[in-house]
Amino acid sequence: MEIAVSVCLGLGLSATCGFRVFVPLLLSSLAAHMGWIELGSGFQWMAGLPAVAVFAAATLFEVGGYLVPWIDNLLDTVATPAAVVAGVLVMASVAVGMPPLLRWGLAVVAGGGAAGTVQAGTVLLRGASSVTTGGAANPAVSAGETAASVAGSAITLLLPLLGGLLAIAVVAIVAWRVARRRRRSSSVPQVRP
């Protein structure tokens, strides 16, 4: 049962890294500092006050940057690979009671995959918002993404099994929508001059 809870905890936190890279890292770091969650071997540094302070500063910078139209689109170029790395890191950090090969395999495939899939969805959503509203609606989109990251992380930390199930649902929906969008764009006939 401990492994199932660890996997759900890691999956939920990893998926929320796709909304905001540092929010899940900050909240899991705070939870570990307060003794609410156990971290895997080699990740106890995340429970220290220096890690909490660095994650808090990074979270403020990230959230603030995403509230500025067009800067948010630039941040996506950095946030996309960073979300995958953060998803791997957070999944590996909470995967307790597993052999290293299983822990890192799950971290890379499930953690990085969940974060990358959700991040791809946010990039598409922000791109559509930028094109249709000239960026005017981007702060509202960004605020919604931040709220989703905070709420998803909090739910996952409080109820890991529910958080894991929600993460699976979000990843499935985003993957389906991204695939549908790609099929539509590939089926549009190209006009040649």
Count of helical segments? 7
What number of domains?
1
Largest sheet composition? none
The structure class reads: mainly alpha
Whole-Å distance between the termini?
Answer: 62 Å
**Shape designation:** globular
The low-pLDDT segments are: none
Topology, number of strands: 0
* Oligomeric state: single chain
Integer average pLDDT: 89
Strand content: under 5%
Descriptive overview:
The protein has 7 helices and no strands. The protein has helices spanning 2-17, 22-33, 49-66, 71-94, 100-133, 138-158, 160-187. Helix 1 runs antiparallel to helix 4 and helix 5 runs antiparallel to helix 6. The longest helix is centred in the middle third of the chain and has 34 residues, at 100-133. 79% of the residues lie in helices and 0% in strands. With 193 residues, the chain is mainly alpha-helical. The radius of gyration is 17 Å and the shape is globular. It has one domain.
Put the structure in a nutshell.
The protein is mainly alpha-helical.
